[in-house]
Structures are given as C-alpha cells and as structure tokens.
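So, could you explain the following?
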Amino acid sequence: MLQAYSAVVNVLIGAGFGAFFAAIFVVQAVALECGFRVGQRHVARKGIQDTAGVSALTAGMLGLLGFTLGLTISFAQARFEARRSSVLTEANAIGTAWLRASLLDDQAARQLRQQIESYARIRLAFAEAQDRAEAARQITRSDAAQTTMWSLASVAARATPTPISASVISAMNTMIDAAQSQRFTFASEVPAEVGEMLLAGSVLALGAVGYLLGLDGQRRLGLTSLMLAMWAGGIAVTADLSSPRIGQIRATSAPLVWTIQGFSNSPMPSTR
C-alpha cells in the first residue's frame, strides 16, 4: 500500500505541481460529493434533522486535519532546510580543502587541487540529479574520487609530516564527511505513512463536510471550492517540499556553483 502510494505521488509530482494539485483536488471533491449525497439520502429517508452534533464532529475533524497538515509541512520544511544547509556546508568544505591543498609541494598541490575541482563538479551533479538512479551514479563517482584524493593527500602527508600536511588531511576528512551528510539529507523525506494518513484524513474530513452540507441541502459550491483548493494546495506543497529530486521546490546548488567558479573564471550553468 505504501509503495503504491509513494509511486503514485512520485509520478504526479514528476508531472508538475499543477498535476498533483489537480489530482488531490479531484479526490477531495469526490469525497465531498459522496458525503453530500449520503446526507441528502438521510434527509429524504428520515426528514430534516438537527445538525448541531454533526457540525461539532465535523469541526473537530477539520481541526485535527489542520493540525496534521501543519505538522507534516513542518517535517517537510525541516528536511528541505537540512538539504539547503548541507549543500552550503559541503561547498565550504570543498573550498577549504582546495585552498589548503595549495600549501603542499607544487606537484602534490597541483594534482590534489585538480582532483578536488573534478570532485566538486561531481558533487554538483549529485545535488542537481533529477532521479535516484542518476544520484546513485554520482555517488559511485564520488566514492571513487574520494579514494583518489585521500591517496594523494596521504602520500603527501607521509612524505612531509608537518602541521601543514596535517591541516590538509583534516580538511579532506571534513570534505568527505560533508558529502556523507549531504547524501543523508537528500535521502530523508517525510515518511510515506504520514502522507498517506494526511490524504486519508482529508478524504474523511471532507466527506463529513459534504454530509453536513447534504443535511442542510445546499452545496455552497463557491466556499467548498475554495476550501478544497486550500487543502489540496497544502498537501501538494508538503509533498513537493519532501521530494528532493522530482519536486518543483528544490534546494539550490548555488554554493557549489560559486565554489567551482572560484576555481577558475570559466562560466558555469545557471542554478535552479
């Protein structure tokens, strides 16, 4: 069930924010209409009833749904901010390692800085990967580049074991750790269980709203359409924020681009 939900969400988000919004809107509209018809049927069978109890229960359901949506958006926003922060942290770590590499002997410095420059471009490709398969390919390239850079730095440090070479090793270690941290933040999404619960809760709550309107005998299309749009928009934004690879709201790779630009004056592609 969760895998099917995640697959459908990924397809809809990949199709664009508008497609995901429309899908959620339609699902909720169907729930609202079903509830309305059930309410009308009850009125037809039992006559006009007191709706005070139904109103109180519906208000409670909407309040709980609002709390759940707010909590879910908070989870998604925290993960988005963690991705942004990890890109900046890694860019700074790469820049520091590149600068410290220049303190080594000329040949070792040149080789290590060239490797770091290539590595930075790999990490940029990882941050901008459009899907998990491409991200996995860049991780493989990153691991190979880290091994090469560490070997070069280790050889230089053993040849001249000085505080300078120790600082280079420290910078390299920080840079590698930053890559692992970034990989973790990009892999962290809002659990599918939370999204599934939010969608199910919205369907039930809006079904209850439709039932109440059915008892009242009026659809109130204007207000209900606005309410559906608000809920659909909130759920769509949450799902988009939670998706690091396929959403419209992406963590910018600008810090890595700026770091690479600092290596040379060659033009770089524009950032998202």
